[in-house]
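A reminder from the course coordinator: this example appears on the midterm review sheet, so study it carefully.

Given structure:
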């Protein structure tokens, strides 16, 4: 996307830091650079602060020992490794974030992870639809980068129709940008489509996929989904309860970004959520705040959530996920079904929308883009980057009987 080249790290001027709250992995080539460094002061710190993992792999060879939750090489908002030794001594993790690389057939696709606030601003706030630049790699070396890949001619994953990935993704982007429908309806229809695609299986032919895509486009033009969608019910109580359950499960299990905790407090304060609050009162206050302050802003800035969703599609290779990845940490190697990939997206969207509704209740007429960016980037860091949270979401949806199209509507419909 055009905004990829425009991104620049703000360094010490950033309102947050990517050097706090995350494990800092060191790939083996970078570890060898550290080990061979001739600077005596650096070698002493390296020996104290960098340790080889128990089961090292080339991408995840060693870790930096954190000072509490912060990288000990962070100094006055800047990386002392970068400052002292140079950019070439940064690990793959540190050098790449928030950049994301995916290889689809012969194309290297680049996107930005909205877990960085400046990346989120670049990716989400441009009112123009995301457009893409194509260019030669010019001999660039990505041998050490973390790259997830899809080879549409490969049968390495027999459960998904990877050979139709390009056509499927193009249709999904078109659907999510169809402003003739409110966004929640577009997402529920996407759920129908994903389930149908999963039902057809990996053996689906090009003719069948073409028929499926044309059928959905015709049905949308003829408004054939209207009756089904209008009969689906939202349930603010279920949404609020599930949001609270999942947030509490996350923040009590691991380090949580401090700025996300601030967002969560604003959500609670905006709903006047106290020890004596009833769920009926909380839901009523949420619906009032969401409709009075959140919906008007988001309706006037539909591009923000559309850009969030399109960005999500590209960086996660939705709805199939990668066939292969050079990033071997556990959260990148889970093979989820097409249905599960959709339900996870629906849950993330719903949770962000809920948090924004509560925050709007506190900010009222001043609610705006800065608050959306704060929620999106802190949510991405806290939940998407968690090793365990995505599976916890899917488990909760199953337990509550929400892992189906009607359940998706409950999560998505305001």
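Designed residues:
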């Amino acid at each position: 996307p055009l905004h990829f080249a425009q991104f620049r790290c703000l360094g010490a001027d950033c309102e947050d830091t990517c050097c706090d709250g995350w494990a800092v992995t060191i790939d083996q080539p970078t570890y060898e650079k550290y080990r061979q460094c001739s600077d005596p002061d650096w070698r002493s710190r390296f020996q104290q602060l960098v340790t080889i993992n128990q089961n090292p792999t080339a991408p995840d060879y060693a870790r930096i020992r954190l000072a509490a939750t912060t990288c000990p090489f962070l100094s006055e908002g800047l990386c002392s490794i970068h400052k002292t030794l140079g950019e070439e001594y940064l690990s793959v993790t540190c050098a790449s974030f928030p950049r994301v690389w995916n290889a689809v057939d012969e194309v290297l696709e680049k996107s930005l992870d909205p877990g960085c606030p400046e990346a989120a601003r670049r990716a989400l706030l441009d009112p123009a639809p995301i457009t893409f630049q194509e260019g030669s790699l010019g001999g660039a070396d990505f041998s050490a980068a973390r790259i997830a890949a899809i080879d549409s001619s490969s049968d390495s994953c027999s459960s998904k129709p990877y050979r139709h990935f390009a056509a499927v993704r193009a249709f999904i982007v078109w659907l999510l940008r169809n402003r003739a429908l409110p966004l929640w309806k577009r997402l529920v229809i996407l759920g129908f489509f994903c389930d149908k695609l999963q039902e057809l299986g990996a053996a689906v032919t090009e003719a069948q996929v073409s028929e499926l895509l044309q059928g959905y486009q015709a049905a949308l033009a003829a408004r054939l989904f209207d009756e089904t969608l209008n009969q689906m019910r939202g349930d603010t109580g279920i949404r609020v309860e599930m949001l609270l359950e999942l947030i509490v499960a996350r923040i009590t299990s691991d380090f949580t970004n401090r700025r996300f905790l601030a967002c969560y407090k604003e959500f609670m304060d905006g709903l006047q959520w106290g020890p004596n609050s009833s769920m009926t009162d909380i839901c009523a206050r949420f619906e009032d705040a969401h409709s009075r302050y959140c919906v008007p802003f988001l309706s006037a800035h539909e591009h923000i959530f559309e850009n969030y969703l399109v960005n999500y599609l590209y960086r996660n290779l939705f709805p199939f996920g990668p066939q292969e990845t050079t990033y071997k940490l556990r959260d990148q190697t889970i093979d989820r079904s097409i249905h599960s990939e959709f339900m996870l997206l629906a849950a993330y969207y719903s949770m962000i929308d809920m948090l924004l509704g509560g925050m709007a209740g506190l900010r009222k007429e001043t609610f705006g883009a800065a608050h959306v960016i704060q929620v999106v980037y802190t949510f991405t860091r806290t939940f998407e980057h968690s090793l365990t949270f995505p599976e916890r979401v899917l488990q909760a949806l199953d337990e509550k009987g929400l892992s189906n199209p009607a359940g998706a509507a409950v999560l998505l419909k305001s």
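The mean pLDDT is 90. The beta strands are 25-26, 50-52, 62-64, 74-75, 78-79, 99-104, 107-112, 147-150, 324-325.
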